[in-house]
Design a protein that fits this description.
The complex is a heterodimer of chains A (about 325) and B (about 260). Chain A is of the alpha/beta class and about 325 residues long. Chain A has 12 helices and 14 strands. Chain A has a 6-stranded mixed sheet with strand order 6-7-8-3-9-10, with helices on both faces. In chain A, strands 2-1-4-5 form a 4-stranded antiparallel sheet. Chain A has a 4-stranded antiparallel sheet with strand order 12-13-11-14, covered by helices on one side. Chain B is globular. Classes of the chains: A alpha/beta (about 325), B mainly alpha (about 260).
């Protein structure tokens, strides 16, 4: 039975993680609702969403910690629910709260987890050393975890997730509680895992997504709002950016003229400042806008480009449904 | 097997390295010492008195001293074992390591068995301490070893049931205190409900029900009778609680 499944999975395209119409509800309240996505091998995917959007629930289902109410999650073509032990072997998971035993030392804890993840005894100390080195825990490896700061505990959590060298890493808010230097280190670490690992990380920090992710899945209220690479998402947004224009003599006729310019999607006037939304930020459109302004003799004194950021898209998308 | 051992080792270390275990062992030893000496001296006094009156010593060392000691041991185990086992699963939930155990490639049976073994060895430690008293006694007076060992086998079995109950309660609650209280109530109810079968009319039914009482089987051991049916009954009760724990762990995935 298992062999058949493995063969079937080989036939398909090389998706590491496949989620089909996944739903989960707690006592009638839908935490995630009809969610589907596919993730290819070697990608770093960012799960983005406001608090309570369903990021953690989705991750818990993919790791086999929880069962979905309906739908299916496949890891390497294997159903998470039907073959929990097989899929748990290839996943390294860092929950929201680092799952550490406070009464153990860093080293004995990571060795313990490596054993549970089935690392052979002969490779045990080598793999543990590697994980400690990658997360920069050498100095504290003999300390008890309860005496470590939040940032160190978080790093211990990351170390346990990577210790068995899993093909898939699922990290729930990996950089929470770290100081800026550590954040950078951890981001570098995640990026360095890219080629050999598939990574899903959840976050509500947008700069993090920009810094490390190949693809983004934006979730709000249990539903996927949009997904794709950061470029694709930026392009697909309604307006690629705005021009802030300051004029001396704003008037109705100028507003009308601006609206008629090709490529302009919206014009708003605040005092003597125009906020002009553009279809895209190409130079032709900006040139046409500036020519119109100059020829209208409204007294152009300032012009500033505002490219749309992931923040704007995020705010746009997550507020739309409210 | 490796996973069971890993979990067992981690938990037994956590148990033995915590001051709780030592404080509780000390407390038990203190109470047992006081009670044991009192009953022993009372027994000696009575025995000597009877020698003065009738010319020969009377009394049964096993029934009067050792069983009285075992009663004390049993009563303390009912309260102390739940304290030893209360954290085994509830603490995992509280500190978030439950997520770890359920996302590494091990089965919930392995978790339940590993945890049970750790609790069992902890309880065995306490029982061993209590065994030192009759052992010491055997150095000064002639103690019948057969009934003593049979009684202790019974004690190990009833202690193992307490561990099973303790683990099961620990799997139910998120708070260690609640799981301990729940387990203590269940342990007490084993003894408080004994004899209920006598209330049932009809000898046939009553004797069937009597066989379902743990106390009936425990008494067999105390009297020096280690029958295979009692052993099998105890083992099935223990397996039942480990199985229930495994079901509860499995159930967490469905919420």
């Amino acid at each position: 039975m298992l062999n058949v499944k493995v063969m079937l999975s080989k036939k398909k395209e090389n998706f590491m993680i496949e989620v089909k119409q996944l739903s989960k509800s707690y006592s009638g309240h839908a935490a995630i609702d009809d969610m589907s996505f596919k993730i290819k091998k070697g990608k770093i995917v960012g799960f983005l969403g406001p608090n309570g959007a369903g990021k953690t629930t989705t991750m818990k289902i993919i790791t086999g910690f929880m069962t979905p109410t309906s739908g299916q999650a496949l890891i390497k073509g294997l159903d998470v629910f039907e073959c929990p032990l097989e899929i748990k072997k290839v996943i390294g998971y860092l929950p929201e709260r680092p799952p550490v035993y406070l009464d153990m030392t860093v080293r004995s804890y990571i060795t313990f987890v490596a054993g549970l993840r089935g690392v052979p005894k002969a490779e045990l100390s080598e793999k543990v050393d590697a994980a400690i080195k990658k997360t920069n825990l050498q100095d504290v490896q003999e300390r008890r975890i309860e005496y470590l700061s939040k940032g160190y505990q978080q790093r211990v959590g990351i170390a346990q997730a990577i210790v068995s060298d899993p093909e898939i890493l699922i990290l729930d808010e990996p950089t929470v509680g770290l100081d800026p230097n550590q954040v950078r280190e951890i981001r570098e670490l995640i990026k360095s895992l890219k080629t050999s690992h598939t990574v899903i990380l959840s976050t509500h920090i947008l700069s993090e997504v920009k810094a490390i992710c190949d693809e983004v899945i934006i979730i709000n209220k249990g539903k996927i709002v949009t997904q794709g690479s950061i470029d694709e998402i930026t392009k697909a947004a309604k307006a690629a950016g705005t021009l802030s224009v300051q004029v001396v003599r704003p008037s109705e006729s100028v507003t009308g003229l601006l609206k008629s310019v090709e490529g302009v999607t919206g014009v708003a006037l605040h005092g003597n400042k125009y906020e002009i939304s553009l279809h895209d930020m190409s130079e032709d459109i900006i040139e046409r806008v500036s020519e119109t302004l100059v020829s209208s003799k409204c007294g152009l004194v300032g012009l500033k480009k505002n490219e749309i950021s992931l923040e704007d898209i995020f705010i746009q998308l997550t507020n739309e449904n409210n | 097997m490796r996973a069971i051992l890993l979990i067992y080792k981690r938990d037994i270390r956590a148990l033995l390295l915590s001051p709780v275990f030592f404080v509780l062992s000390g407390l038990c030893a203190a109470i047992w010492s006081g009670a044991f000496l009192r009953t022993f001296f009372a027994f000696v006094e009575k025995s000597m008195l009877s020698q003065q009156i009738s010319g020969r010593p009377s009394g049964n060392l096993h029934m009067e001293v050792i069983l009285s000691h075992l009663t004390w041991v049993n009563i303390l185990l009912m309260f102390i074992v739940p304290v030893l086992t209360m954290k085994l699963l509830s603490e995992e939930k509280r500190q978030g390591t439950y997520d770890l155990l359920l996302t590494v490639p091990i089965s919930s049976t392995q978790i339940a068995v590993g945890k049970y073994l750790a609790g069992f060895v902890g309880a065995l430690g306490l029982i061993f301490i209590s065994f030192l008293y009759p052992l010491g006694l055997s150095l000064v007076v002639d103690v019948q070893m057969g009934p003593l060992l049979s009684a202790y086998l019974g004690l190990v079995f009833i202690g193992s049931v307490y561990v099973g109950i303790g683990i099961f309660c620990s799997s139910l609650a998120r708070s260690a205190v609640i799981s301990a209280v729940l387990a203590i109530v269940m342990n007490l109810s084993i003894f408080l409900t004994s004899g209920l079968s006598n209330l049932v009319k009809g000898d046939g039914l009553s004797s069937y029900l009597k066989q379902l009482e743990l106390v009936t089987h425990y008494w067999q051991f105390l009297k020096g009778v280690a029958s295979s049916s009692s052993i099998i009954f105890f083992i099935s009760v223990i397996v039942f609680f480990i199985f229930s724990t495994q079901r509860v762990i499995e159930f967490t995935r469905w919420r």
